[in-house]
Amino acid sequence: MSLTTDLKTEAQRHGFDLVGACPAVTPTGIHRFYEWISSGYSGEMSYISGRAKAYEHPANVLAGVRSLLMLSMNYRTSDVSPTPDTTGRVSRYAWGGLDYHDVIHARLKKLVQFLKNRAPAAEARGVVDTAPLLEREYAQMAGLGWTGKNTLLINPRRGSWFFLAAILTTEELEYDDPFDMDHCGNCTACLDACPTDAFPQPYVLEATRCISYLTIELRESIPTDLRRSINNWVYGCDICQEVCPWNRRAPQSSLEEFEPRLDLSPLNLLSLFSLTDDEFRLLFRKTPLWRSKRRGLLRNAAIVLGNQRTEAAIDALTKGLNDAESIVRSACVWALGEIGTPKAIARLQRLQAEADEEVRREIEQALAAQ
Fold first, then answer.
1. CA 208 to CA 38: how far, in whole Å?
2. Catalytic: 129?
3. pLDDT tens digit string along 203-213?
4. pLDDT for the residue 200
5. Strand, coil or helix: 131
6. Where does the chain have alpha helices with state H?
7. What is the pTM for the complete model shown?
8. Domains identified in the chain and CATH numbers
9. Active-site residue (options: 85, 129, 176, 177)
10. CA dist., res. 189 & res. 186, Å (int)
11. Which of 45, 146, 208, 266 has the fewest beta carbons under 10 Å from its own?
12. What is the pLDDT of residues 20-49, one digit of tens each?
């Protein structure tokens, strides 16, 4: 059998579901990527905009590259659990106890070694999410699916609940036919369901309005006009995938690494405000939630509690008023103002010594709104 066939068989043996090969060329959608950057839609994600030119060709990831083996790994597990007050929703991809980067990288290393054993003169590199590579473009070129109106890759048999990864190699592989059909048709379910209107047009995401960006990538306070739209999402968002008709029959993952950790689906928000730095690290260091860091996750938790407007959150939010991070204090002030009961407002009225200008402004606005 050929190297390409053997690689595909080996990839599926290691838990990858879809596998296809394509040539290492400049992606056809590179101009759209540059337009997206120039529109300011990437926000604070400087790791994208700061190396935009590197996305022009995979040779910027691996010198001499000739081929890409594109891979998908399904992460859909159980159904969504109810989210009662004082808990928050976590995006499905982050339910497991391990960061998917670690899970996938371990398998990519084995595939790279397999390739090198078969082709000793070859160079190869496995990447997932972190290299300057337009993975969805190459996945479509490799026949894995089409890019939907929500900007995610969709496969007609597997929906969109999967991660993408790639192996770049200097070997020439046997290339698959690209996926040329767009099966979204007249459907606008994802565009209509987005609570923050993060899609200025089909196939374009304004990341600075996306709940996933706001709760994961944004390092500052969440804009006031978007806070209520976050609803109960404390980390990430799945709305545009949940409403997609192609996900109705998406298969479940068989990988135990992605099985939900019970304390992450949903996430208890009140207990977060009592965690020490060491306790927070112990709970989240190996999970995707670590990306938000403690300050980001507590900020998000306060916003969700403010949206739920339950008095049961007042004591935890009061602890947050004394947090060392100003964005946590600011979010807790807003949340108490949203709860708006006499007990909640009394906690705000006690704040006399706040030094941070943004937090003081939040206090003034919360009290003025009562």
1. 13
2. yes
3. 999 999 999 99
4. 98
5. coil
6. 3-13, 30-38, 46-49, 100-118, 135-141, 189-193, 211-212, 224-227, 239-242, 277-284, 293-308, 314-320, 326-339, 342-349, 357-368
7. 0.96
8. 3-76+97-169 (no CATH), 271-370 (1.25.10.10)
9. 129
10. 9
11. 45
12. 999 999 999 999 999 999 999 999 999 999
